[in-house]
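Narrative summary of target 7.
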Amino acid sequence: MRRVGFLAIILLLLINVVPSFAQGGVSGQSNVADDTFVITCDTGEEIIGGVKFTFLNINPGFNYRVTAIGIDDFDPSLAVVTAPGEGRCNDDEVRAATSEVAVPGFGLLTATNRTAQVTVNTPRAGNVDVIVGGYQGATGQFAMVIEGLAINPRTELDGFLISVPSVVQDQEIGVYMVSRYTNLDSYMMLWTGEGLQQDPINFDTVTAILDCDDVAVGNCASVPAFPGGGVSIANGNTYVAGATDAGIIMTPNSNEKFLFAFGSSNEGSTGDYAIIVTGTVPGSLTETTTSTTTTNTGTTANCNNVISSVDASSQYDDTYGPENLLDNNPNTSWSSSTMEGEQYIIVLFDQPYSVDRILFNTHSASPGFEKDSIKDFELVVISQNNKLTTIFVGEAQLQQGYQEFTFPAVTTDRIGINILSNHGGTTYEAADLIVCGQ
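Modeled conformation, tokenized:
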């Protein structure tokens, strides 16, 4: 691998407070608590709860591709930060769809259009952060593939450092080394010790506790064999997973840091390889309360509308912009451009307000397109103590006029409406929205 010093990856808890994630560049990052790390993309969106990997001392001009595939319908988001304020974000990379990754214990995973991927050329020497999160702070499992690695010369040893947050300490972590061709006989070791808890690492007090030459035999007999198929990234490379590839599965059960090292068996071969990492995104800390929903026509009486601006994930064209949601006119509406991906509405207030109900005219303003009217949705708010709170998952009736949804009062300066379904149409459409607060 082309690097300076030792390659390391640190796994940390992420917490986020924004109800969506979109593709774009990285505009900044900030620590808001000891165990909290926030990555903000240039869209203004932030990674929602996940895991962070930090590569240390990477040489400039180092090319690599990182692909994150969700397991069991988990929708991953991905950011790579090559320097403070510089990097790439991605939620859905359609070019990575149909990629296949053979993962021991999980079988052959096929990437969908919700797969996240970032390709980066490092602009300068230094650290590189890789952050895997979940859409809307969801928790779930992922398989991440890191391409562009190599053992050359044959005595080279690469590795990464893992520290697991308490919320997923009891979840297994799988790490696998897959050669691109059959010339590399891969070899892995797992290290622990007080020296790993120090900065910089003190290798005099580090001890190897596990090693693996070939999966499913010898010291790693408990690691399932590769299910066949290897790794094939649709817009990347193909790696041949076989009997001579290595892997380690472990459950941390502590806050200690662990070091995974990668090399060749008996220092006897060279070649390109990829790393597969399986793990669990802890997600954001959320709380859900029960809503009271009235599907009769709502009234604007005694409602102080606190909305100052509105935005949306997409719009059909200039006629169907999100500003139509604020004009109190049932003959104009906002419409998404598609039903693919995550579609949402975000409304902002000019200051924090105590809000306890919304009036939502979810009916389409387009004759003949009534089935596009929003049906199922969830309301997400951000409280003053920075908790992402799902107030309810509501169901709107197919009817004209405002429908009222009430909930326990919460203080916030924004809310997000994540759209889950319509009444059988091809886009999502709604006419008007009012948020009542004081």
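The longest strand covers residues 344-361.
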